[in-house]
UniProtKB/TrEMBL annotation:
SUPFAM superfamilies: MFS general substrate transporter. The chain crosses the membrane at residues 21-42, 54-73, 85-104, 110-132, 144-167, 179-198, 210-231, 237-260, 281-306, 312-333, 345-367, 379-401, 422-439, 485-506. The keyword Transmembrane helix applies. The keyword Cell membrane applies. PANTHER family: ACTINORHODIN TRANSPORTER-RELATED (PTHR42718:SF39), MAJOR FACILITATOR SUPERFAMILY MULTIDRUG TRANSPORTER MFSC (PTHR42718). InterPro entries: EmrB-like, MFS, MFS_dom, MFS_trans_sf. Keywords: Cell membrane, Membrane, Transmembrane, Transmembrane helix, Transport. This is MFS transporter. It comes from Lysinimonas soli.
Length: 525
């Protein structure tokens, strides 16, 4: 194609284009904010709905798993009916699911609403990259994707602080509902604006349909593995938990053989087996899973410890995340420039800093008495981990995609996105089991502690004795949750160390011009 022809057919960037782009960014910000904003609300949800430990894990893991599983089929459907309509349907469903989550009066309803919310979030995420490609010519596309990448890091990093502010403003009892209700006005505005502003591309371009059997097999396998990881500790690891994990592994094997058969028949499998002919890609996919298992579990542990264990408010819990958020934003702003200069070394530095930061947080929890901990002790380690995370998250997908042939880049990117969300779900499930599994059966004073309190304060009256006993309960809560959080952060640190080791399977540098296509994750049959 000549340059004259190219310029003639390239879309013009107008004010309307940027307004449409703003709608896409608003939708992405809503979906990604909800991946972290809920962390600071977990203790208040626990109190308000009398939720058990498994429910808290499901609220996070269910969202992440459903989100990840929806990514690839949503791209395929968008190819057939138009990405604009997939975006609108997904965003509308996400908004309605947010309403359902906010009005939930029992834990089962809340879990279902969160799963549906994650499902629709995963549906409207893939059309964004396809629509950016449609709306912007190559020269302007880089700027659009830079803003897109920055919004991902910014929304994810600020989730805990926004959640803490909302709960502090509206009260601890039912303030958690506001983290879901806040999506409603923005969702309605975004759906209407998307209908009016987004371009309607020609539908029906995809030559193959969605691999429904593959989708069902993969979903069944992951659910079969995830359910016992979340419920097993609370239920005492009965026989069904081991059978379920074994069944999930069998389903994964069946899924692999099914995908091979789909590929042999000349159709488009959900996860193209040819990708895994590249050992470096396989290692990169495991890296994506392990890193996100470490990354998304950090503030799950800290939020529960900070509020339930130490009695701080949701806002105070959200403030703990500020050093990580600032570090992440600064790291992300420099990551692409450093990646061009240093190549894979930027990922090595990023994962090393995350591992060192998490080890630092673990040391603070290990060495200090829980009651003596403040934000200041965690500031340095979390800032280091946040900066490392910012360096890693922005360029890591490009390095993983660079391990496969250029023609396979779109399919590879879709698989990576799914594995990142699956990693988030598995990380929360494992960390939740470690954290809650290490708690004592009761935080009530022992007989000796009660007797000592009565002896020391009996002369001052029953009120003084009750106050002394409450201080003992508070101490036991701090020590118990401090111990659980220490173990949980140790596991997160181990995940980060493993991720550091896996970085070395990736290529040292990306060939100039090798980029993830703008329609990444949307294979074309």
């Amino acid at each position: 194609m000549t340059s004259a022809t190219s310029s003639a057919t390239a879309p013009l960037v107008t004010r309307r284009t940027w307004m449409a782009f703003a709608v896409l960014i608003l939708g992405i910000a809503m979906a990604l904010l909800d991946t972290t904003i809920v962390n600071v609300a977990l203790p208040t949800i626990r109190t308000s709905l009398h939720a058990d430990e498994a429910t808290l894990s499901w609220i996070i893991s269910g969202y992440a798993l459903a989100y990840g599983l929806a990514l690839i089929p949503a791209g395929r459907i968008g190819d057939r009916i138009g990405h604009k309509w997939v975006f609108i349907v997904g965003l509308a469903g996400f908004t309605l699911a947010s309403l359902a989550a906010g009005i939930s009066n029992d834990t089962a309803t809340l879990i279902v609403a969160r799963v549906v919310q994650g499902l629709f979030g995963g549906i409207f995420f893939p059309p964004v990259t396809a629509l950016i490609q449609l709306m912007f010519p190559p020269r302007a596309r880089g700027k659009a994707f830079a803003v897109f990448g920055a919004s991902i890091g910014f929304s994810t990093a600020l989730g805990p602080l926004v959640g803490g502010l909302l709960i502090q403003w509206l009260g601890e009892t039912d303030g958690w509902r506001s983290i879901f209700f806040v999506n409603l006005p923005f969702g309605v505005i975004a759906v209407v604006a998307a209908f009016l502003l987004l371009p309607s591309e020609v539908a029906g371009r995809g030559r193959s349909g969605v691999d429904l059997v593959g989708f069902v097999l993969l979903s069944g396998a992951l659910v079969a593995i995830l359910v016992p990881l979340i419920q097993g500790q609370q239920d005492g690891w009965p026989l069904w938990t081991y059978l379920s994990i074994a069944g999930g592994i069998v389903l994964l094997v069946v899924f692999a053989f099914w995908e091979l058969g789909v590929a042999r028949r000349g159709k488009e499998p959900l996860v193209p087996p040819r990708l895994f002919a590249h050992p470096s890609f396989t290692g990169g996919v495991i890296l994506a899973l392990v890193y996100f298992a470490a990354f998304t579990s950090i503030f799950f542990s800290i939020s529960i410890f900070w509020q339930t264990g130490l009695g701080h408010t949701a806002l105070e819990s959200g403030l703990v995340s500020i050093p990580f958020a600032i570090g992440s934003i600064v790291g992300a702003s420099q990551s692409n420039r450093l990646a061009e200069r240093l190549g894979r070394t930027v990922l090595v530095i990023g994962t090393a800093l995350v591992a060192l930061g998490l080890i630092g947080v673990w040391l603070m929890l290990q060495l200090m008495a829980p009651q003596d901990l403040t934000n200041w002790e965690l500031l340095g380690p979390l800032a280091v981990a946040g900066f490392g995370s910012g360096l890693f998250i922005a360029p890591n997908s490009q390095f993983i995609v660079a391990t496969v042939d250029r023609a396979e880049a779109g399919a590879a990117s879709g698989v990576i996105g799914t594995m990142q969300r699956v990693g988030s779900a598995i990380g929360i499930a494992v960390i939740g089991s470690v954290l809650f599994g290490s708690l004592p059966s009761s935080f009530a004073p022992t007989a000796a502690q009660s007797a000592a309190a009565a002896e020391a304060h009996g002369a001052e009256g029953s009120a003084a004795v009750k106050a002394a006993i409450q201080r003992i309960v508070d101490h036991n809560l701090a020590v118990g949750f401090g111990h659980g959080a220490t173990l949980a952060l140790a596991v997160s640190a181990v995940f980060a160390i493993v991720a550091f080791g896996l970085v070395f399977v990736l290529p040292r540098r990306i060939s100039r011009g090798y980029e993830i296509p703008a329609d990444a994750g949307q294979p074309r049959g």
